[in-house]
Amino acid sequence: MLDIKLIREETDKVYELLSRRNGDFKYIYDIVIKDKDRREAIQTVETLKAKKNETSRQIGEFKRSGKDTSELQTSVALIAENIKRLDDLVLKLDEEIKNLLLITPNLPNESIPIGKDDSENREIKKYLKPTQFGFPIKTHYELGESLDILDFNRAGKITGSRFVVYKGMGARLERSLIMFMMDLHSNRHGYREIIPPYIVNEASMIATGQFPKFKEDAFKLYDDRNLYLNPTAEVPTINLHRDEVLDVSLLPIKYVAYTTAFRQEAGSAGRDTRGILRQHQFNKVELIKFSKPEESYDDLEAMLKDSEAVLQALKIPYRVVELCTGDLGQSMRKTYDIEVWIPSENKYREIGSISNAEDYQARRANIKFRRTIDSKLELVHTLNGSGLAVGRTVIAVMENYQQADGSIIVPEVLRPYMGLDIIR
Predict the structure, then answer these.
(1) Cα separation of 107 and 34, whole Å?
(2) Mean pLDDT in the chain?
(3) What's the pLDDT at 203?
(4) Which of 23, 164, 169, 406 is least enclosed, having the fewest CB within 10 Å?
(5) Other CB atoms within 10 A of residue 314 CB
(6) Phi, psi at residue 42, to the nearest 5°?
(7) How far from 165 is each of 273, 394, 402, CA to CA, in Å?
(8) Which of 190, 181, 17, 173 is nearest to 110 (CA)?
(9) Residues 6 or more apart in contact with residue 170 via CB below 8 angstroms
């Protein structure tokens, strides 16, 4: 969440930056008023407590000298009543301020393009030219069904829409991509492998900024512990260090996490209903970094290169765009999207996001570090990036490597994992 001190001291600037997200953030000024009322109430309570203590001391003196204390005792009771009223007010304002801060998104980095939506994202680079074919091409779901490696009908019978059964070489392709990505990021890029729990608690969802805004998109379990299915590996991996002070000598801490992710896809009815582009359940390899503030943007650029390396090794065309303010995620200050070429759609599609949240998540999750033994505690910066979304990588491989006879060439780097060079 945002620093209340920043909102208090630079209200107009905070409002202007938030407004670049194209929302209504006038309530920022309400936060300032509530914060002022809260601090004044706390100050008054301290004054009243001092007066109460002094009056109590006088009561003791009066009693020792045999004087009537009834007036003083009435005064003490009134003071205590006022203290209780103001304490209740402080608790109420604390809760109201906290709730407003929890729904407030991160400030967009001032360097990113100002825009209304993804149509105004800035293209940064391209890798390879879009794949050309000398024959009528098929979609990934047409290829998958004709090769009997993707089964949507039986998945629908088992569960419902937006699920798939990977079969035979389809299952092996998915598994091979996971193994390839995990090996690449751990062996070449120096990330530490983890497989976190697939179920997370509400505190974890709040810490990363998933809640309260995206609560309707989460799968809640029927469990009295208030648990949810993991929507992205970012949630459990960031929360590895919730309420911890990290060893500065270990920064940046780098994790590569594999999970299955689950999303309701609320609000996406009618979008991408065919195939595996937008599923309720999908596999993902995620990159996470905990960085020193002054190094986090260098770490962001390095993370982008690490994510790009997956598609470069697979030799699949893609481009990188810098997200504008209107397309920026709730918790992020700056984001790059990697968009892979999808031949059947004749366009690029997002396959990964690489983002710097700066201290937004760390403040919510209370993740800090100390530069020296005598230094004050500071918030780390958190970064996350797709390394990549596995299902969408499957789509990219199938469509870009399809052949005229409906077979699919296996990219060279995947052949040791697949044990073959063509899927027929």
Answers:
(1) 21
(2) 95
(3) 96
(4) 23
(5) 21
(6) -65, -45
(7) 15, 13, 20
(8) 17
(9) 144, 147, 149, 150, 394
Q: Under DSSP, is residue 235 helix (H, G, I), strand (E, B) or coil?
A: helix
Tell me how far the alpha carbon of residue 86 is from its chain's centroid. 37
CB atoms within 10 A of CB 286: 29
Question: What's the predicted TM-score (pTM) here?
Answer: 0.93
For residue 205, list its beta bridge partners: none
Query: What b/e readout covers 389-421, taking b as 16+ CB neighbours within 10 angstroms?
Result: bbbbbbbbbbbbbbeeeeebebbebbeebbeee
Does the pLDDT value for residue 269 go beyond 60? no
Q: Which of 367, 370, 393, 369 is nearest to 284 (CA)?
A: 393
Q: Report the DSSP beta bridge partners of residue 350.
A: 339
Give the pLDDT confidence of 225-259 residue by residue, as tens digits: 999 999 999 999 999 999 999 999 999 999 999 99
Q: Is the confidence at residue 418, as pLDDT, over 90?
A: yes
Torsion sign across C-alpha atoms 252, 258, 262, 263: positive
The DSSP bridge pattern shows strands 253-262 and 192-194 to be parallel
The residue among 418, 185, 419 whose CA lies nearest residue 313 is 185
Kind and range of the H or E run holding 352:
strand 347-358
Q: Give the alpha-carbon dihedral of 354, 359, 365, 368, to 10 degrees.
A: 120
Residue 267 has a pLDDT of: 55
Instruction: Encode 173-203 in three state secondary structure.
Output: HHHHHHHHHHHHHHHHCCCEEECCCCEEEHH
Q: Name 384's bridge partners.
A: 288, 355
Cα separation of 398 and 186, whole Å? 25
Q: Is the pLDDT reported for residue 111 higher than 60? A: yes
Residue 31 pLDDT greater than 60, yes or no:
yes
